[in-house]
Amino acid sequence: MPNNDELFAVVTQHNGGNHVRVRCEDGKNRMGRIPGRMKYRTWINEGDVVLVEPWDWQDEKANIEWRYSGKDADQLRAEGHID
Questions:
Q1: Which of 16, 20, 56, 82 is deepest in the core (most CB within 10 A)?
Q2: Residues in domain S1-like (predicted)?
Q3: How far apart are CA 83 and CA 67, in angstroms?
Q4: Nearest residue to 62 (alpha-carbon basis) of 30, 21, 37, 40
């Protein structure tokens, strides 16, 4: 579950490299950055549910913190956390 500064988001577009476009639960579209610790270990595709942490100095960008599996994402949708 997200901390105070983290949000649920859905990946809408993969821009190549380590950048994705995400639609956050607060209604904003942000550019998400996949950190190096996840880049080759966790594959992120369009439609995946992720946990993001928006940047303090640029609100239109965020770091990807976690990718939820299909079962976990379905459970979050059933509980009403995401659309």
A1: 20
A2: 1-69
A3: 16
A4: 30
Q: Which CATH class is domain 7-79?
A: mainly beta
3 state SS of 53: strand
Helix (H, G, I), strand (E, B) or coil at 67: strand
Of residues 60, 46, 65, 57, the one with CA closest to residue 8: 65
Specify the amino acid at residue 36. G
Q: Give the pLDDT confidence of 26-71 residue by residue, as tens digits.
A: 888 999 998 887 777 778 888 889 999 998 898 889 999 999 888 8
Q: Are residues 10 and 47 in contact, defined by beta-carbon separation less than 8 angstroms?
A: yes
